[in-house]
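Ticket #4471: structure export looks truncated?
Reporter: QA, pipeline team
Priority: medium

Steps to reproduce: submit the single chain below to the structure queue and open the exported record.
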Amino acid sequence: MIKTGLVSVTFRNLSPEEIIELVKKAGLDGIEWGGDIHVPHGKVEIAKDVAKKTREAGLNVASYGSYYSLGCEKEKNLPFEKVLESALALEAPVIRVWAGRVASEKADEAYWDMAIEESGRIADMAMKHGIKIAYEYHPNTLTDTCESAYKLLKEVGHSNVFTYWQRPFELNTEECIESIVKISPWLTNINAYYYENRVRMPLSKGLNEWKEFIETFRKIDGDRYVMIEFVVDNSPEQFLEDAKALKEVVG
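Actual output as written to the record:
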């Protein structure tokens, strides 16, 4: 089943209460709460409060969008235990993590080995609590291409490690669909946006392409969220328009 939602860091300047009200007004299903500003890592009481308010509004916590990066615990002073504490307080089903901070083509064998080992370690920790680990699908990480994401997921080989997907700028629609299919055994959530020449556009401008993406997602087993991110001018009004477009294609 495909559900709809918002990535909270789309609106860093809004409070959790304002975001909840906006998502409720938009008629979406859930929210991914970001770990850098709205639900800071390790701030358990904030996480509990945001979770309570989210559910009281009839919305779901779709995931915990952490800024935990493989290999960066000491550098960022962010032990995974803090991330897990917040995810548990949110009752989030998924923790999003970053697959390091090095582009896949620049990462040496030792870096890959570190990422594989650490992925297994945090996946084991989260699995004890029924929470999935999912990589951000993002430039300048080990999941910056379909091929590198596939390689990492295969080599980690852990039943509790998954990945997000977001549209790569450099691919055409057909290539995007091929990338979705390739990582489909591990696909959790999707970030939804539309750009032309790397300029943010209303999601409605990309509706034909997103219809094809949604049909591809429907063929993949499991439940997942398609969550709006990156709206024109960071505008709440534009978000409401984008939410309307997203609901049109999801149905």
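Status: closed, not a bug. The export was complete when the record was re-opened. Leaving a note from the reviewer for reference: The mean pLDDT is 97.
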